[in-house]
Design brief:
With 206 residues, this protein is mainly α. Helix content is 80%, strand content 0%.
Length: 206
């Protein structure tokens, strides 16, 4: 068993234990942590919840609602951090994370122009969905609109993953093995992206 497989198995076991013990509240908690940047994959949380809907412990709509509510709760924390002081903090310390003023300007400009669709679509994209709340807060997006579009995008994502788990039944965990097949490709893309990011920022005075 590889290191990645070992970690994935332990994360899966943790997720199963939490949801089994806490029910819907466990789904809310885990999805809130995922939306706050903690590496707990919704691709495991929601399919297992969908499987529990098949067994009768959950309902499919209830599982999706709990997941979407967790996404919004976790995202609100990042939103308020950015709303209160994210821009000034990043402008001061962003260079240590290779985040330039230009990057902040681009993110803020996109949200000022396309806040609603960006907040909605961002919640449907892996990885991006976890961090979309920060630029929303930095751009000062209206809180009610942020909650609305964040919830709608999250509900579609969580319902789809729960439905897949419901359809797979006891084979819901096979999704983890499917995602593992992309580990190498994802690692290559991350390394290439990081190299490009470093080169671009080290070559520009920000």
């Amino acid at each position: 068993m590889t290191i990645v497989s070992t970690i994935a198995a332990r994360v899966s076991a943790f997720i199963i234990d939490v949801i089994s013990a806490m029910g819907y509240a466990g789904v809310v908690l885990l999805m809130a942590l995922e939306s706050a940047g903690i590496p707990l994959p919704s691709e495991i949380i929601m399919p297992f919840s969908g499987y529990l809907a098949l067994t009768g412990r959950f309902t499919l709509r209830g599982a999706a609602l709990a997941g979407a509510a967790g996404c919004v709760l976790g995202g609100l924390g990042a939103y308020w951090v950015a709303r209160v002081g994210g821009r000034s903090v990043l402008e001061r310390y962003g260079r240590y994370l290779l985040i330039s003023k230009h990057d902040l300007d681009v993110a803020e400009r996109w949200f000022l122009r396309y806040a609603d669709p960006v907040a909605f679509i961002g919640r449907l994209l892996p990885v991006i969905r976890t961090y979309i709340s920060f630029p929303a807060g930095m751009a000062g997006m209206d809180l009610r609109r942020f909650i609305l579009y964040s919830f709608l995008g999250s509900w579609i994502w969580t319902y789809w993953l729960a439905w897949v788990g419901w359809k797979l039944g006891e084979r819901w965990d096979s999704l983890r093995h499917t995602f593992e097949k992309f580990d190498v490709a994802i690692a290559v893309l991350l390394v290439a992206g990081a190299a490009w990011w470093v080169r671009r920022h080290l070559g520009r005075d920000s």
